[in-house]
Design a protein that fits this description.
β2 and β3 (125-128) form a beta hairpin. α3 (151-162) runs antiparallel to α4 (191-198). Helices cover 32% and strands 17% of the residues. The protein is an alpha+beta fold. The chain is built from five helices and seven strands; from the N terminus they run ααββββαββαβα. Among the domains are: 1-44, no CATH class; 105-208, OB fold (Dihydrolipoamide Acetyltransferase, E2P), CATH 2.40.50. The protein is rod-shaped and about 135 Å long.
Length: 217
Amino acid sequence: MDVGDAPRAVIGGSARADFQAMYDVCQPVVKRARLPCGMTRRWQPRLQRRPGRPWTKDLGFVLTVALIGVMAFYVTLNWSPVGDPLPAQTAIAAMPTAIPDRATLACAVAYINDGDTLRCRDGTPIRLHAVAAREADETCSTGHPCPTATAASATHELTRLAAGRTIRCQPTGRSYNRVTAICWTPEGEEINCAMIRSGTALVWEKFERQAPLCRLR
């Protein structure tokens, strides 16, 4: 209630004079501030509020965050390490394999002929089953798969895997005077599969269908 509006019946005598004096002092000030007398600016109601951000912007932000989360989940779900691509002409499992019980032939490797042939210390020549590498003179025999990798690179890879080691082999047949076989290193890595994966040799599909490579047995 404004001081100036106080009921005169209630205010009497000197009290009335005091209120009137206070009113006379207060009135010019509050008129400039456009406030009722007795009300300070700290009690002024906030008549205008700063408009908030439109709800459409909030919705757009939420949708963007949700989309980023979905994309991150999809990438994580489908991510796989990038490595050297396998030859296109066959689907070979990229995993080391355990040495099977049927790998009965032990070969202490004495010599590496080329990228698909080696010789044991007892004189047994072994031709890697279903593996085709260039000949030592860099040629490819007629009718054989012919890799783009050099014979030297294939020989180097087979040397790294088998030279001077005792490997175990599973015979699969004969080729001329050689035993064709799938062989494993002492650690259980399939040598035939490793040669294909290295890109220095190709899989010979006709023979691979008879005894698959790169599979647990």
